[in-house]
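Fold this sequence, please.
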Amino acid sequence: MKKIGFLSFGHWNPSPQSQTRSASDVLLQSIDLAVAAEELGADGAYFRVHHFARQLASPFPLLAAAGARTSRIELGTGVIDMRYENPLYMAEDAGAADLISSGRLQLGISRGSPEQVVDGFKHFGYDPGEGDDHAQMARDHTARFLRAISGERFAEPHPRPMFPNPPGLLGIEPQSPGLRERIWWGAGTRATAVWTGEQGMNLMSSTLLTEDTGVPFHQLQAEQIRMFRDAWSEAGHQREPRVSVSRSIFPIVNGTDRAYFGAEAGSRDQVGHIDGGLARFGKSYAGEPDQLVRELAEDEAVAAADTLLLTVPNQLGVDYNAHLLDSVVRYVAPELGWR
């Protein structure tokens, strides 16, 4: 059995060819797609977070709204850039959204991806300082956020408060029980996956790794997952960790599918440069369901993960993306033993 969800980048574009021509379109359609995914039997609705771009940027209003419209499906992010976040304010937002959804949030966080602007986090008021490391700033923000959602009490109460306080120091409210165990770190390398396991966060791995050893992407990612699980065990964490991987999977079951994605058949890994270093990009899977079953059965990282996130072309609209999800759940997942 494997949990299957979608991951939307939340693009919008005023082009006549786009079904999402405004931010309003993307937000409302994201909620509708979460509802549709739940009705189809999928397990998760996840959303990317990007700043200074025509994409989804503020996840918590969206997660709360989707939580109010659904009852079973997991709701998450992939990922929130912690360089931009006030960890205490984020803890309040996350706690509230998780309570609205009755404990269904699965928050993916990380240092973030390459930006649209230079040092965008500085515009949000966060500067690591001269010679400081913005990646370490993201980890520092994360540590403060994790302590806050775990119930840390650190603030001295006012001697004349507006309302009576409980005894002792105060912490962030509201608290949502179990949220700490549903935090994921988006790891782009094997070393970061090891750190993630040591910290006791779940592992979220995408269709990109910012390193390359010459082996196929799925094998490199499977090695990353093994190293994460080893680090988790060595750290002595008691619960079983979760691992998600993202894939672009397009079953071709009608002419529209073929027109959109027929050219993706035979896709291969790609190697490129990100932030000055080599990176390996995983291939897309496009083809008739029996072909996809054969190809996905050989994907070692998909086999090792408990959660599969399907990247969806959100600008094609809710109906078409619901069709894609249904095709995977109906024709591909049962043949691979995921359902």
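The chain has one domain: 3-336. The two ends are 6 Å apart (CA to CA).
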